[in-house]
Design a protein that fits this description.
With 363 residues, the protein is α/β, with parallel strands linked by helices. The chain has a single domain, classed as Thiolase/Chalcone synthase (Peroxisomal Thiolase, Chain A, domain 1, 3-Layer(aba) Sandwich). It is 32% helix and 23% strand. It has a five-stranded mixed sheet, with helices on both faces. Strands 8-13-12-11 form a four-stranded mixed sheet, with helices on both faces. Its main location: cytoplasm. It holds the Pfam family ACP_syn_III_C. It catalyses: malonyl-[ACP] + acetyl-CoA + H(+) = 3-oxobutanoyl-[ACP] + CO2 + CoA.
Amino acid sequence: MSRAAVLCGLGGWVPAKAVANSTLAEQLDTTDEWIRTRTGIRQRFVIDPGQATSDLAVEAGRRALESARRTREHGGADGGPAPDVDLVVLATSTPDHPCPATAPVVAHRLGLAPVAAFDVGAVCTGFVYALATAASMVTAGLARRALVIGADTFSTILDPADRTTRAIFGDGAGAVVLRAGRPDEPGALLGFDLGSDGGGEELITVRAGGSRQRSTGAPAPEGDEWFSMRGREVFTQAVLCMSRSAEALLDGIGWRGEELDRMVAHQANVRILRAVGEQLGLAEDRLVVNLDRVGNTVAGSIPLALADAAASGGLRPGQRVLLTGFGGGLTWGSAALRWPELHVEPVPGLEGDEPAAAPDTHP
């Protein structure tokens, strides 16, 4: 039987500082109602001064590794002897430094060096791209066990005066452990669909700081150092691309949309989640939603939602689960698996606050 990458550990992490909509309303020209009715978000978490993406990635990674260990001890999805992790892939658009990559630092701090470690940059689709990359290396025999992390600290690149982006984005991280196994095992990644369209690069961007701007030798125009997004166009493209990607993947593995038990999509906007769910014929109770409590955590979004739902019982062994994301680039991607039995601890700061059904918003 062919080799497969099997999900066997899961963990999430958010910073200690929660920022409610009411706090933003005091700082900006906005209200709690304006934010909730347009996005479904009521709070987000942000790092303290001096913290960085690697700090969140290390904590999420540590919890995923512990989840794999405990799952193995309890005879769950990781039932055999555990080889050491020999690959770390970090999805992020907010690395600690432009150079070097952040993944080697994370691997070192977790005591995993000298394993292979590198970053993947696909913005909000980053985790799906990283998952596909690591799974391919496992199935090809280049790695036996991989730690895949999605982590971002978008609070560091948001314009302090922009009420729209500051309302949407939060900081957070999630991680999974993959091991070599069989395609018929629960937790085996059954397939991927990935795509991009660089013609839409201006829809989601930070214009300054890269080689194109720096090569001019001129200072960046004011405001270009901050993240920007053309919201209406992004909304349309996100629904279209995630729906098409999900449908292509489901066709490829022989599943129908209505057979899905859970869709864990990138947590961007609750209206986007609903629209994609409708395209796939899913009732709202099959959508995993935690953006109301964490906001859009970019590459951390999907694995953080997985950890949150798994710890609260929202994901159960045997369920058919679809992951799908959309982000800058433009990029998009989807993955599918049958959910395994895992030991997952609640995400600190989110304990006792279960992932919601899609919250009410105005159309």
